[in-house]
């Protein structure tokens, strides 16, 4: 799914040039996380020229003639404006599809419930199942390694012999760790290291496929309902979208997602329903090879993108998040979250972006 087989050839492609053009460059001593399923390397950079980036919110507000190559997609039974690119069938952009309240709700769910077992996250491979990460972060807990009494007992009963070395990780008060030799990791740090979680059918990144044998819950009803409703403009007529899996991506200020194609679902006539939350980003929509020059567009909190049919074969990625400097972009979100008691979530989202993309697998 992700990355090109020949990295040197990938370096020279039009898609790669666009990624380099838009990526955020930072001082070398602030080396950021590479979230990439295909990495971007550094460069000199600075303020990128954003004049070619399509801004659907400006087009929506102008309510006039659209630039060449962009159209409106009229869809029976769908009451919101939907934009499309005339030469890129199957790609749809629904600006401001979610209200501020809805955005807050999905941000909370993304941080609180979506990373809960049996859903897996990038942290699962290191620490096993971790429950209540957000609560632990709010309560300033730390994660420590401990012996798992359950497994020890079970092994003894099964005559596995001797003491098992089975370990697991648990949250404890940071105070209790003072003077302890155990290595501990603050829950707030882990929260920042959260890069993805998978809902519904679990995606196995190492096998690059869905592993239906892994325990999973179905997609929460409210999210499934939203995805079904928003998928309508991209659905073959008379059919209903079946949300079976979702990937939640968590982006910090210097994170990016390298160009890739999502090709692990059986029926490409069904869309990927992709929800943006938090800080603004640049999204690149390329061609069927990396050699085609991609179109850059802004994605803002509450926007929804649909990719179906031919658009499923197109390379796409996120080279840039706009955090900190562009707080006015998410001012409604900030004021809504400020009125609650969610300081942690407020601080998190001020310099993060969350993307929930929902898929029909079969
Ligand atoms: O973050 C986004 O908007 C895109 C995410 C994506 O393409 C993916 O997870 O496959
Ligand atoms: Fe994707």
UniProtKB/TrEMBL annotation:
Signal peptide boundaries: none
Cofactors required: Fe(2+)
PROSITE patterns: FE2OG_OXY (PS51471)
GO process terms (BP): oxidative RNA demethylation; regulation of seed germination; seed germination
InterPro entries reported for this sequence: Alkb, AlkB-like, AlkB-like_sf, Oxoglu/Fe-dep_dioxygenase_dom
One Gene Ontology term, aspect cellular component: cytoplasm
GO MF entries: broad specificity oxidative DNA demethylase activity; DNA N6-methyladenine demethylase activity; ferrous iron binding; oxidative RNA demethylase activity
Residue stretches making up the Fe2OG dioxygenase domain: 242-362
Binding-site residues, Fe cation: 260, 262, 316
Superkingdom of origin organism: Eukaryota
Cofactor note: Binds 1 Fe(2+) ion per subunit.
Keywords from the UniProt entry: Dioxygenase, Iron, Metal-binding, Oxidoreductase
Similarity remark: Belongs to the alkB family.
Protein name: Fe2OG dioxygenase domain-containing protein
């Amino acid at each position: 799914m992700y990355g090109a087989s020949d990295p040197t050839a990938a370096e020279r492609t039009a898609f790669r040039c666009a990624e380099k053009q838009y990526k955020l460059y930072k001082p070398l001593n602030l080396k950021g996380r590479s979230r990439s399923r295909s990495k971007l390397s550094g460069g000199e950079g600075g303020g990128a020229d954003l004049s070619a980036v399509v801004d659907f919110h400006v087009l929506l507000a102008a309510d006039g003639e659209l630039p060449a190559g962009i159209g409106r997609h009229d869809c029976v039974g769908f009451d919101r404006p939907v934009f499309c690119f005339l030469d890129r069938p199957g790609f749809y952009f629904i600006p401001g599809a979610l209200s501020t309240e809805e955005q807050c709700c999905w941000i909370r769910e993304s941080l609180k419930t979506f990373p809960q077992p049996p859903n897996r996250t990038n942290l699962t491979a290191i620490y096993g199942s971790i429950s209540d990460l957000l609560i632990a972060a709010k309560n300033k807990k730390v994660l420590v390694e401990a012996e798992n009494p359950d497994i020890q007992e079970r092994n003894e009963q099964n005559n596995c012999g001797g003491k098992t070395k089975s370990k697991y990780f648990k949250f404890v008060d940071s105070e209790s760790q003072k003077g302890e030799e155990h290595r501990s990791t603050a829950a707030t740090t882990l929260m920042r290291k959260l890069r993805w979680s998978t809902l519904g059918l679990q995606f196995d990144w190492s096998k690059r496929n869905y592993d239906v044998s892994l325990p999973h819950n179905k997609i929460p009803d409210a999210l499934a309902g939203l995805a079904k409703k928003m998928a309508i403009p991209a659905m073959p007529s008379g059919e209903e979208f079946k949300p079976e899996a979702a990937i939640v991506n968590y982006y910090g200020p210097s994170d990016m997602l390298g160009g890739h194609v999502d090709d692990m679902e059986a029926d490409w006539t069904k869309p990927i329903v992709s929800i943006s939350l938090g800080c603004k980003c640049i999204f690149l929509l390329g061609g069927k090879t990396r050699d085609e020059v991609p179109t850059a567009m802004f994605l803002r909190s509450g926007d929804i993108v649909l990719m179906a049919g031919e658009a499923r074969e197109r390379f796409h990625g996120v080279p840039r998040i706009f955090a900190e400097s562009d707080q006015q972009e998410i001012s409604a979100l900030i004021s809504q979250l400020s009125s609650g008691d969610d300081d942690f979530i407020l601080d998190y989202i001020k310099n993060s972006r969350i993307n929930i993309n929902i898929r029909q697998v079969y």
